[in-house]
Structures are given as C-alpha cells and as structure tokens.
C-alpha cells in the first residue's frame, strides 16, 4: 500500500536503531574486555589494587581506574589486548560457521519448503511412537534405537534434525548418477537395517556391495547371486526359479520376468511377445511339476515335437494348458517356429552354463530358500549387468520370489514382518524389471516389506513400466526422494507445481515533489522453479511425503559418519578381493573358452 512521506523518516529511524544495536554489540564486549584486561595487567605488574566493575570507565578513562599503570601498560592492557582478543573471537566464530556449513554440505534454506512442524510424522518422536505400534518386539522396550524406527533419509536442510521414512512406507528415489543415491540412501539403509536385506545392483567394486558386505556378514549370512560375474563371486548358492512355478500363475510370473527383461513395456502386447511368453509359462509349469531343472525347458524349446511337456501337464491335471501347448505345436509351421524362436530368445541366457549353474541343483552348494531368508537377518545381493537379458530376468525373478515369500510370511505372522525386510532395488529399470512392481507398491509397506526403487530418471521408469505403470508407482509411493541431475523439463516443471507457490514481498520506491514514498505488495512466486530443481546441488534432495509439504534435505553419505574409517577399510578389502578373483580367473589356462 502507498505510504506518506513520513514513511521515509520511519525507515531512517529503523536504520538508526539497527546501527545503534550494531555499535552496542561491539562496544559492550570491548568495554568488558578492557576491564578484565586492565585488572589482569595490574595483577601481573603488581602496581595497585584491582578496580571495581566499571566497564565504561575501563574503556573511556582507564587511567582513573588504574592510576598506578604507566601509559604503555594502559595502552597494551586496555586497548591493544582487548582489540586482539575481540578480533580473534570474531575470526574463530567465522571460521567455525564456515567449516560447519561446508562440512555438512548445507546450502541456504529454500524459503517456502517444509519446516520441522510440517513433517513431524517423519521426525524422531513420531517415528518412535509409530515403531512401537508397528513392531510388537519394540512395544515394551525402554529405549529404541533410531535405526529401529525407520530409514534415515537425511537432515532437514540447514539443521541437525534427522528425517526418516517409517517401516510401513514405500519409496521411489529418482537421482542422476553420482548424486548420492548409493552413498546416501542405499548404503546407510543397508547398514542400519534391523532385518533381512535384499539389494539389486549392476556394480560391485566401490559400490554398495563392497561397502556393506563385511558389516552385513557380522549380523547374518550373506548370499551373493552373481551369474554374470560382476563381483567374480564364488558360486556358494543356487536358487530354484521353478519352486514357485507349480501353478499357472506362478509359471506365468516367471515367464513375465523373461519377457520384461527382453522387451520394453510398449512392445509386450504384440502377438509374438505374448505368444512367446505363453509358451515359456507352459513349459516352466511342466518342468516345475515334474521337478526338473529349468534348463530342460531349453531342450523342449529346441524340439517343439517333444511330447514330454504335454504328457507332464496332462498327468498333473492341467489338460487345458496341455491343449493350448498342443495347438501351438501342431499349428502352422511358420507361426509355431516364430513363437518358439521368440521364446528361445527370451530364455537364451539359460544356454550359458555359467549362468544356468546358479539356478540348477549343485552338489555341495547350499540352496537359497526365500521362505527361510525372510525370517532371518541375512543379506541377498543380486547382481546383473545392464541389458543382461535373461540373466537380469533371473535377478528380477529371485527378487520377486523373495518379496512374495515375505508377503506369505507376514500373513502367517499376523499381517507384518517383525523385523521388517528392506528391499533396495538399485538400478531397478536395468536389472530388476518386475512387471507388476507398481501394483505391489500398494500393499508391500503394510506387510513390513519396505521397497526403495532407485531410478536415474522418471522416463527410465516409463520405459520399463509404461506411462500408466510409472504413474501408479509414483502415486503409490508414500516417500519420494528427488536428487540432483533432473534434466527432464516436463518432470522438473511437474515437481515445481507439486512444491507450490509462496507469497513474496515486493517493495518499490518512488519520488515526487512532496517526498519519497514506499509501497509494499505481495505476489505469488514458485518456491522452486524448474530451473532451480534442475540445479539442485549435489548433497541435497527434495522429499515428498504423503500429505506433507515438500522438504529440502541435506543428505548424509556414509563416508561422513563417525564409523566411516572402519567401513572404508572393509570396502577396500572387499574391492581388492574382487580384483584378486578377476585376475585369478583371467590367468586360468581355459579362460575365455566357451562353456
């Protein structure tokens, strides 16, 4: 509103008042330092009694308080020494503030984002109360460790207030490479997990695998499924993908993993893809019912005329499925051959004996059983290369079987797992393409199964699950973490609109013959425009919690925590072990020969 000329005099009064406060902030400490220093000088030189507390005189008339001191002593004791101390204190305070700011990676708080009261359900008090209600084992505990209440996401920006997601939340994190998704989310979550942990990844050395292997081996057994030898892990386990394929639904899910690993969501509805997936599901069902290894399916695909799968299906009462399989086998040769060739391509990884060995019975090697894993404190590392085709299908199938086993165990235990199971699906769009993962998000959290799907971009998720699927996952996620490196302008603008607007005060000044007038108006402005979201600095992230205002977080990478030295040493040992295994394998005489 417009102001009268008296507004300028009011502004002048405010400036004078602020200037007075600034002067007092310097003069008062200086006067007190002069009094303390003058008395100290008198005591050191032994030239007279101590002066009474009169800081004003100490600053203005030191010769009256200490008449026994000479001019030099007065100058040094009541002028130079206090000035030096005052300057030193200022420098120390400035350095301490700068060091604190730089060490934590904090930036200026974004005005309009959530304050502590806006995200209270994610803070310590509420999280502790929620943990008691969700986990019967903690109900009567006198004290509860923070890691038992939820997964640390970071600190509320510019504060030391820890923000956590609870053990009924499901999360999606979208962060570009090298923006902290592994160091600040995956690794700290795994290290603090109170129950079993599942991790999918396409890297080993210098990543979550090496950073958490030793610490997790101290709380339970570590299982590593590494069919493409990313970590060159020794094969000390095998898993039977057909264990859950003894029903038509189970066999269909397994075939769906091979389909999803081979083609994008946009291609999965065409005739050849659906037909190839159907053949795989029928053959998986037959192999599972007859308790055969999954590699027998490749023999049946090579020779469509083999009647063994038809006989098995009929013998076990699946006559309708047998009829469908027979119709395909006896159909037009060009159609049959096209369908079978499509199925062969989807399952081609099983032709590799090194990959197949991880999913077929092995003497003297333990079988990984998902139903036992979900009641333990073990860790399962599932490793696969980007674009691993059938190998990544096995990774997705194993992760899916673990989550389904966890759901069944939760139902037997009264509805929830206690302690909860953490599933870190890092690089999910590359190595863990579970087709109905967006649908699973609607109920996993309520079972004590906590998935955290980590993607590099929103479009990456759309490519795997389609627009509708990715939108469903985004909507179902109760926690959404957005890190730096968002280069999609449409997604950045969507986030900007979700964060919302805030009121900004605008001041304008005009001059006329009657004087100077100032007007103040309010206008709406985006809290974070799209370009600011794109420019989020590394070490910070946006947090969207269901029903809460968007918050800015300072991430907490594991290497800045108190036990970082110990963890770094363990990670270095694990990385060296990977290198040693790779060198040993490369120097074998038969290295590189076809299996």
UniProtKB/TrEMBL annotation:
SUPFAM superfamilies hit by this protein: P-loop containing nucleoside triphosphate hydrolases
GO annotation, cellular component aspect: plasma membrane
Record's subcellular location: Cell membrane
InterPro entries assigned: P-loop_NTPase (IPR027417), T4SS-coupling_protein (IPR051539), TraG-D_C (IPR032689)
Domain of life: Bacteria
Membrane topology value: Multi-pass membrane protein
Name under which the protein is recorded: TraD/TraG TraM recognition site domain-containing protein
TM spans (from-to): 15-35, 80-98
Gene3D superfamilies to which the protein is assigned, alphabetical: P-loop containing nucleotide triphosphate hydrolases
Keywords: Cell membrane, Membrane, Transmembrane, Transmembrane helix
Domain TraD/TraG TraM recognition site: 420-538
